[in-house]
Structure formats: C-alpha cells, structure tokens
Structures
1.
Amino acid sequence: MLIVFVGPPGSGKGTQCELLAQHIGVVHLSTGELFRQQIQQATKLGQLAALFIDDGNLVPDHIVVELVRQSLGDVQYQTGCLLDGFPRSVAQAQALDAMVHEHGKQIAMVLALAVPQDILVDRLLQRQRKDDTLDTIQQRLDVYQQETQPVLDHYQKQELVVTIDGNGTVEDVFQRVKQAADLKRT
Ligand code: AP5
Ligand code: MG
C-alpha cells in the first residue's frame, strides 16, 4: 500500500502519517525528516540541504529523487509506505511514477490535506522548528503554491486524489484520513 500525502506546510502530513502508519502497519517516509537527520549528523548531504531548507526553498529534484530511490529500495518499505512531503514538484512526481512502475507497484491514492492559510501559520509559529519563522513560512507557502500545487493536477489526471479537510482536532482529521484509507483497502 503506497499512499502519498500532499499538503502545505503545517497541514498535518507528519502528524497524520504517523497515526495512519500505526493503523495500517506500514512505514512512514518523510523527506523533510530525512534531511533534518542528515543536518543533525552534519553530513555533506545535510549541509547542502540546509542551504535550501533554511530559506524555505525546495532541495533540488535530483538530490531528493536519489534519496527516495535509495530509501524505497530498503526492505522495510517493500510492503508499503506512506510518503510525506514527496513528491513536491511535477518532476519528482514523474520520477516517482517511473520508480513505482519499475517495481511493478502502484500508488493507491494521493491524500491532499486542505487547511486555511491563517491556521497553517498559527500552527507553525507555535511549533518553532528552525524553518518556522514568519518569513520562511511565507516562502514555504509560496513555494507550495508554485511548485507543489501542480503535483495535485498531475495526480488528478490519474484520478488518485482524495481531498481531506485538515481543519479540526488531530483526532477529527485522523478519522477522515482513516476512512479514506480503509475504503481503499477493502
Ligand atoms: P517538511 O519537513 O516536509 O516540511 P513542510 O512540508 O513544510 O511541512 P511541515 O513538516 O512543517 O508540516 P506537516 O504538514 O508535516 O504538518 P505537521 O504534522 O508537522 O520539509 C521541510 C523542508 O525540507 C522543505 O521546506 C524543503 O526545503 C525540504 N524538502 C522536504 N521534502 C522535499 C522534497 N520532496 N523536495 C524538495 N525539498 C524538500 O504539523 C505541523 C504542526 O501543527 C505541528 O506542531 C503539529 O503538532 C500541529 N498540528 C498538526 N495537526 C494539527 C491539528 N489538526 N490541529 C492543531 N495542530 C495540529
Ligand atoms: Mg512534516
């Protein structure tokens, strides 16, 4: 079961993926988390990624695609995976389509989390991650509109997109996410 989560910064991709991963027993792959681990370990990849992340910009496609390609090759991902924060450009979506095809797999669905912008900003300012400053949040939101929104158009053409109202408590939203995922599993 391969499910792609798409949503603007603060929409709850990470929060909901964690809950759904437990519910259906698959692993959660967050490219943002992978980069933050690399930054913490001060690897070359981390140092490079930080140049983009700190300004709220996307890490270049070829770097992200290679990282995901390596990760999806891991045994733990063979039975399925929840993709959080990848793909976030049309080029990444095309690369994922090719990877999935190569492995004889398919994307079960693309869950789009929809949350009003003022709520996104409130959530992120409260969290205070390094890239949660007002300027960087605005840049991340702009990048989402320009680069990632078209990913949803890409998957609409494949009739894979299920839009979820991401407003409400974590538990409310999870009920909606779970219902959408369970429908796909039956
Ligand atoms: P990434 O780590 O993916 O960050 P993001 O997309 O900006 O999203 P967030 O992690 O901030 O939000 P989320 O949707 O996961 O929400 P969360 O559950 O955390 O990427 C970071 C950076 O890495 C990018 O800017 C880019 O530079 C780079 N990068 C990553 N992937 C890349 C890619 N594929 N290509 C290129 N570059 C890439 O929730 C947010 C907060 O809200 C939390 O505090 C949470 O507790 C709270 N919250 C969640 N749900 C609710 C709720 N229902 N009610 C109240 N609070 C809630
Ligand atoms: Mg996240």
Note: The pocket of magnesium ion (ligand 2) is lined by residues 13-14, 30, 32 (CB under 6 Å).
2.
Amino acid sequence: MDTFDLHPDLVPAFHAILRKARRIVVFTGAGASAESGIPTFRDAQVGLWHRFRPQDLATPEGFLRDPALVYGWYEWRRAKVAAAEPNAGHRAIAAWAQTRDVTVITQNVDDLHERAGSSRVIHLHGSIFAARCFDCGAAYKLPPPSVDAAGTGEAMDPPRCAACNGLIRPGVVWFNENLPQREWAKAEELCRTADLLLCIGTSGLVYPAAGLPQVAAQAGAPIAQINPEATDLDALADFNIRGTAGKIMPRLVAAAMQG
Ligand code: BJW
Ligand code: ZN
C-alpha cells in the first residue's frame, strides 16, 4: 500500500493505472461535498442537533419519536445543499467522463455530482430532494427550502400526506432500512467489472456501501482513496492519497488524461 501527498502523478505505479483504466468507478461519501460547504454526516450534528446521535436523527425510529426534530434537521440540510455549488472535485470527476467510462456511486443525498455535469450517478442512500409519505409511500412535492441555509436550523413539523394523512419524510435511506435494490445491484455489478475504484471522502464505516471496495478488490481492481484522514478503507486500498477532493481530483484527472 502506498500513501502519498498531493501529487498522484509522482507515483509511477498509480500513474500507469490511471492512464490505462477505461472503466472507472468513483465511490463518493460526504467528504466529496465538504468543500462545497456541506457538512459531512457527522459534522452535520451541530447547533440544535449536536447532542443527538446519528441513530436519533437518521433512523425510522428516531423520526417517529420526534418527527419535528428530524424533519427540521433535513430541511436545514436541504437548504444548505440547494444553496451550495459543486466544487473542483465534482467538476473534475465530470470532466474525466469525457474521455473515460466513469460512473459515480455516491452515498451522498445531495445533487452536486449531477450539477457538476456527471450523467451516470447512482445514489445508494437516496436524495434529500425527494420526499414521500412515511405510511403509504406516496411521493410528495417539496416546496423550495424555506429555512435559512446560513442559520443553524430549528425543529419543524413535517407536512402531511394528501392521500392518507401520514407524515412526510425525506427520501433518504436511514439506518436499519434497505438500500434501493436496483441501485445496489448495479453498484455491485460495476465494482465487479471496474478497472479502477476510486474512493473519495468516505469514512468507510456504514454498510453495506462500505463493502463495495471489497467487491472491487476481490474482482482484481486496484483501489485508490482520497481522504485527508486515515479511514477504515486504508488497509484495503492500494493507494491512499492524503488530501481533499477539491485539491487532489483536478490533478489526478489531469494526470489520467495524459494517457
Ligand atoms: C474529506 C474531506 C474532503 C472530509 N475531501 N474527504 C454490516 C456490518 C456492520 C453494520 C451493518 C452491516 N450491515 C448493516 C449494518 C447496519 C448499518 C451500519 O452500517 N451501521 C454502521 C454504523 C455500523 N447499516 C444500515 O442500517 C443500512 N441498511 C441495511 O444494512 O439494511 C439491511 C438491514 C435492514 C434492517 C435491519 C438491519 C439491516 C443502511 C445505511 C444507511 C445510511 N444512511 C446514512 C444517512 C442518509 C441520510 C442522511 O444523509 O441523513 O447515510 S448514515 C450516513 O453515513 C449517510 C452517509 O451516506 C453514510 C456514510 O457516511 P460517509 O459518506 O462516509 O460520511 P462520514 O461523515 O462518515 O465521513 C466523511 C469522510 O470525509 C471522513 O473520512 C473525512 O475524513 C472525509 N473528508 N473532508 C475528502 N474535503
Ligand atoms: Zn400517505
């Protein structure tokens, strides 16, 4: 395993893989959107929400226990995403797809990959812009976010379903919920057939998504990781690049395109 700083183009073995790879899977987590001002999952537990654990906010049980608390947290986050712009990392990934077969598998519930121009994006954990009824599943059209993206948010009663009066919930995948089946099957298939898996900004702690690098490794694909911190994926990765997505990705894609 190689660990290096800032210049992926200085590591010949990695450079060779980058130039040769045709089917590339980019697997992203919250760190990919951090430089767009979107707090990472754990960092989003600030302000009003700092005293809550993930299982209080991102589970069906937590939502039912205190719907206004959880709904307010998601509305604050939705406003933040709506006000954010893709960063240099998102843009570099989109540019890479002009010369290579690049698919993004993201755990993020934002739409910043799409807004940067990536057309093949698989969302494993849903979307913060989709909403549906907790009880009957009917889709609910969200109005533009009404909360202050710069503020710290507040609790907010969720709207009610027009069909059954059930509570409206965000269309994301919470702990103890299944991932969307079609997206998961596609993600596994892509990892089995990739020439390179690039993991960006994920702690690698949340399963089953965190198992995808293992799928790619078992199929023989080299694994590279971009993250300023050590993660649970370090031991599996062939190349650990310590740095931020926005700084590393433009250089990495420039190096890849030399091939
Ligand atoms: C930067 C950066 C920069 C910062 N540049 N990098 C097998 C083993 C163990 C446990 C389980 C297992 N299978 C299932 C489980 C249970 C559970 C689980 O994994 N628990 C673990 C905590 C142990 N999994 C589930 O419940 C899943 N469902 C499931 O398995 O269904 C079957 C089932 C049914 C019934 C009962 C039981 C099982 C569902 C998981 C859904 C996860 N949902 C969330 C919330 C989505 C909505 C929302 O956003 O609110 O998804 S949780 C949260 O974690 C969110 C994220 O997508 C996900 C991953 O987090 P991510 O992206 O890695 O972010 P962070 O914050 O952890 O890390 C950020 C990283 O970025 C850090 O490393 C930084 O250093 C880095 N960074 N700046 C690059 N500029
Ligand atoms: Zn309903």
Note: The chain has a mean pLDDT of 92.
3.
Amino acid sequence: MDQRIKATPVVAIVGRPNVGKSTLFNRLLEQRKAIVSPIPGTTRDMNFGHCHWRGEPITVIDTAGLDLTSEGATDEAMKRQADAAMHKADIILFLADAQIGPVLEDKVLGKYLQKSKKPVILIANKADNPKTRKQTEEPDWLKFGMGEPLPISAANGTGVGDMLDLLYDRIAAMGLGAKPMPEIDARIAIIGRPNVGKSTLLNRLAGEERVIVSEVPHTTKEPQDTLVTWVDEGGTERNVLLVDTVGIRKRAHVEPGLEGIGVTMSIGEIARADVVILVIDAVEGLNLQEKRLLGLALEKHPGVLIAVNKWDLAQEKKLGTAGDYKDYLATELRFAPWIPVVFMSAKTGDRVGKILGHAIHVAREREKEIPQEQIELFMEKLKKVHHSAFRKGENRPKVYGMTQIGTKPPKFMLVVYDKDTVHPNYLRFIENRLREEFQFDGTPVRVLSREIE
Ligand code: GDP
Ligand code: GDP
C-alpha cells in the first residue's frame, strides 16, 4: 500500500500579553487539552498541542508561557518570544486586541515578525460582536503592512473557523502536502499501565528540537500513527513509526480481557510493531499486571525494551543505583532475561532521545541473519560444550545440524536423529548459547527441531 504522510504543519500564536493567546490556544485544542505539555523552547518553555480541522492535523504552539510580564513587555522579551516561535513554526498567527486597537507594542512585535521569512497572519482578537468587528476596518490596522486583520473572538468562537480555513489555504500553498512514506527503521508500540508516563514521553519526543513529527492516517480519518524523523549522531536520517499514538493519547479501546491491566493499545496494534517499549514507573516497580501485559505482547514475538521512567523520582527517593534496579528486574523477568532495560525521565527529557536509538538497535537484532558458515562454527563449538553442560547419563540428543529458517524474530531449525530426545530444556540451552554468540539483544529467538529425513 502506498501510504503517504504529511509533515504536520506547525502554527505559532504570538502577541503581546493579554491579547488572548492562551484563550485561542485552548479553543483550538478543545478535547485535546490532555496532551498539552511544555516544549523545551530555545529560551523559555512554551506549550504545544494538536488540533484538527476537516480531518487535517496541525500542531499549535502557544508562546504565552514565555516570560512576558503583563505590565508591558520589553522589546527584548517580545523578540525572544518571536524568535522561539519563528524558529519552530511554519506559519505565525499574530494576535492583537480588536477592542483596544493596535498599540505601539504590537507594531514593534509585528515589524520584528516580518523580518522572518515565515508567513504571518494578522488577527484582531476579542472581536466579539458586530461593533468591534467593524472597528477592525479602521485604517490604523493597515499600518502593519499585513493587510486587513482577520477579526475573531477566541472567547466565543466567532471567526475561528474562517481563520482555520485561511490557515489551511496558506499551508496548502506552502506545499506542506502529502509525501510518500519514507523507509521505516522500526515500528514501535509504547505500552504500559496508565500514569507511567507514556504520553509525557510522546510529547517529549514530539517537542525535541531535532525531531520532525508527522501524523500517518490508516484510513482517511484521524491519524493514528506518528512518524518521528531525526538525524542521529552519525548524521543518518532515522524514521521511527510510533503505532497507535491515538490510543496512547486517548486511552481508548481496551480489548476484552485486558481491562484489568488498563492497557491503552490493542494486542492487534501491538502485533504491528517490531519493537514494544514497555514503560514502567521506577518508583512503583514492575507489577503483576505488567508481567501479564508483557506475556501477552510476547505471544506476538516483537522485540522488547523496558523503559524505566521517572528515574528522576527514583533518584530523589534514593531507591538505589541503575545496577541495583537491573538486578531487581532480572529476578522479575527470569522468563525473558534478554530484555534490555533503559532508564529515563520523560518529564525532564533525560535520556529520552536515546530510547528510539535503542529501539532501532533491537529492531536490527530482530531481523539479523546469521551466515550458514557461522552457524556451522557455532555447532562445532557446541559439541565441546555438550560434555560440560550435560550431566552423566542425561539423554543428549544426536544433532545433525542447524539452519536459520526465518527472521523477525530469528528462527532456527535444529535437525536431529530422534525428536523424542529433544527436551524443551535442550532448546533453551541452544537459545542461550546462540545469544552468547550472536547477542540478539531484545528479540525473542525461536529454536525448533525436526527429524532428519
Ligand atoms: P494571553 O496573555 O495573550 O495568553 O491572553 P489570555 O488568553 O490569557 O487572555 C487575556 C484576557 O483576555 C483574559 O481575561 C481572557 O478572558 C480575555 N480574552 C481572550 N480572548 C477574548 C475574546 O475573544 N473576547 C474577549 N472579550 N475577551 C477575551
Ligand atoms: P500515561 O498515562 O502513561 O500516558 O502517563 P502520563 O504521561 O499522563 O504521566 C502521568 C504522570 O506522571 C503525569 O503527572 C506526568 O507529569 C508524570 N510523569 C511522567 N513522566 C515522568 C518522569 O519522568 N518523572 C516524573 N517525576 N514524573 C513523570
């Protein structure tokens, strides 16, 4: 299927204090307030969120969080705000107050914005009624050199639809249209109980300076996956698809049988992933629900990574070192000791960027193919180990050879003389030896057996 993506256009709301930036931001986001979070801006934090108009997503940045005092912003502070917005946004909504009319501060800011090459749309907010709307036709507004302002009322919604139409026309004219889907390095499902920090992680990733986020629809309806593109330390462009991000945000569709676990993603969605990132709360540790969830996910044989989140809190509470924590998880995860553990703080952003790199590594391990001659060497070595690994009198299967018969996850076929002599323990022994030799970090490895013909 020729899936196409659209880089989600980024729109920044800029204006002096009290013109209604936050009010407009909240109106645009409406149901999606839950995903609002601070973005690490160049100088100060700002809020961002997603809004949809006619099924098309846009990312909206509210710069009201930048340090402007309501007593009268200094030019310096306003320039900082404008810089942050101009840096991140594709298009700028420049707000002024229709009831007060344009003032000197607006003009200073407007001039500064025009220096950027980004398109600026002049908005006269607080045009709540016909009388104030009429006032926006005064010639004074034309002094910005941006044409007539578009009157809206962020408070009662008047004109906001027209504003979004205009916005989308401009965006379309800028050529931010659909592009073919790039090659994906890994499809990732972020799973975990409520409150462990999944949406914080998602927002943090979306807010990273180096990262471009695009929404990918499965159908023509709402986007469900998020494409995250960035350039890694080696200068290579990486593409990671976060599956079912709507599920992460909305905490929707819990499959029967999973209610008790509070899973936000269906097993079907998990099956689309190459790698599952199980996010757990460092302070609460791994509980029974999570083990069950992991067990269910593993039935689909994805790569797995455990992200121990809220590591900042764990350190504050002096819960021990990362080494201690790994030991603790190793005892809990005896059934899958091959799962890598990474520590992070979605809230502070610490090591968040590394998670995707780890996930790509796991995806690579999962599709690894071992050349037959290396398998032969491995079998030679194995013969020597046999003597020490098996107690006297224990039934040791006579093995003819082994080949890799599949990837995603790696699958090996052991050819034996008599299948009855092959116990599950023996297959596990082979798996462990394979891991010692070829790593297979974070991926299940399947070892099957058949009798020689
Ligand atoms: P910001 O500092 O630019 O983010 O402005 P706010 O969104 O905090 O709004 C400043 C004040 O203007 C608040 O009291 C809002 O209720 C009010 N306000 C915002 N939009 C409108 C509007 O469309 N009409 C009216 N009458 N008041 C508004
Ligand atoms: P979700 O239900 O898994 O999507 O969890 P959220 O992302 O909504 O996070 C739940 C709560 O944990 C929120 O109050 C977050 O601010 C907080 N939180 C998330 N990540 C961290 C973190 O790394 N450290 C700390 N201290 N709190 C976090």
Note: The mean pLDDT is 81.
